[in-house]
Amino acid sequence: MTPGELRRLYFIIKTFLSYGLDELIPRMRITVPLRLxxxxxxxxxxxxxxxxxxxxxxxxxxxxxxxxxxxxxxxxTRRDLFPPAIADQLALLQDRVAPFDGRxxxxxxxxxxxxxxxxxxxxxxxxxxxxxxxxxxVHTATLKSNGKEVVIKVIRPDILPVIRADMKLIYRLxxxxxxxxxxxxxxxxxxxxxxxxKTLIDELDLLRESANAIQLRRNFENSPMLYVPEVxxxxxxxxxxxxxxxxxxPVNDVAALEANGTDMKLLAERGVQxxxxxxxxxxFFHGDMxxxxxxxxYEHPEDPQYIGIDCGIVGSLNKEDKRxxxxxxxxxxxxxxxKVAELHVDSGWVPADTNVEEFEFAIRTVCEPIFEKxxxxxxxxxxxxxLFNTARRFNMEVQPQLVLLQKTLLYIEGVGRQLYPQLxxxxxxxxxxxxxxxxxxxLPALIRSIKEKAPFWVERMPDLPxxxxxxxxxxxxxxxxxxxxxxxxxxxxxRQGQSRYLFGMGxxxxxxxxxxxINRPDWGLSPLWLMGAGAVIWLxxxxxxx
Length: 546
Fold this sequence. Notes:
InterPro entries: ABC1_dom, Kinase-like_dom_sf, UbiB, UbiB_bact, UbiB_kinase. The chain is of the alpha+beta class.
């Protein structure tokens, strides 16, 4: 490790220990060396004994920076894995991260607008941030041009070096995983870290986020399920983004939603529908759907509509991944575990020589207990843990392109659990996926494909005779090239065979001449003539080999 990485590692360890997070180390025999090592670090005592464990964990992650805050945000949705005292504290990381000085934000806005005073573009700019997150914070203002209320999102200053330093250290640790764990290579830790780094770096470019928000808004235009605020792209830059200010109820404020008369069952079902629509219909999904980024409109509580913000992280799947995922989901819903096992083999997610019968039985053992239960009684955390153990047995590799989707699924589960614990996730998702599969492989898909490609075929039809002639000519030229290469290879093989023969003859003559010189010195010059002949034959063989 470099000195800089060692300093950062020391800071991380010191931060965790100064907040007393060593309490999270389970008291087991295998952890005895770790707990003994902790006692040797006597100069790093717990300096926050007056605070509860959940608050200490939140403060430690917040102090370590955006990479760790993002991790805490994901953990905050897993209320089935953590007690409320910890989950409630981690939830504060979603929009209540310590802000930076508003005057710095104002300077950055003015710099983005060509070093002009902020008053030229905005009225009522509030120096106090409306919310602060791990990557950026937002301030409220009013557009001078049309008088509309907006929020201005500003990237935290000097954040990139911190992310680079943490990611460099994480890369270093990821390289050790295959050495420390027997099946560490199967986890593909470097690919997973590289994907995570990409999402973090992408979040630093607010022009990218603006484009993502515009696309997502277009995908759900006039939809009763999801509303995405309007982006004012004329005012956007890589470090600043201006968008419509929205008013809604945070999706995790269940009491406020119920007080507003919200249909909680419909709201939870629409959350699942929004996710599957983004993934399978649009192949463009919001990849950071933690509760801090999701609100519910005050209007029409009987027909609730989500409001989505912060589109810095989006994901997409190719056609093959979408198809395999949809068929996997449907097979799970139908409890067709044989089909699930075969799909995993066909997709290459497990080796081709996998015993499908054993794999099917292992999947059945993990998944069968979760069906016909309400969401409140299903822990996807435990199911994923069991599936991980199954994967280890069958050498299943981690798929980096699905990591973001998996994280989003965890968020959806956490939100659904809070809104309506009795939600039947399977009944909600299955009709959507069956309809999507039918649309992809049925007669409508064939007709749509013909319609899409018909203009291209019509355009290329006059060129078909020429293309056919070119294809025949190229085929003939290819065959001639293959024949020429084959002849050259045949001649080369013949030369190499002759060369090996001459090498052997030369070696035999040289060895024979040497033995004669040693054992029959009375033969005079005959062995020397024999040695010369061997050397000449050897030289001829070498020339033929070259």
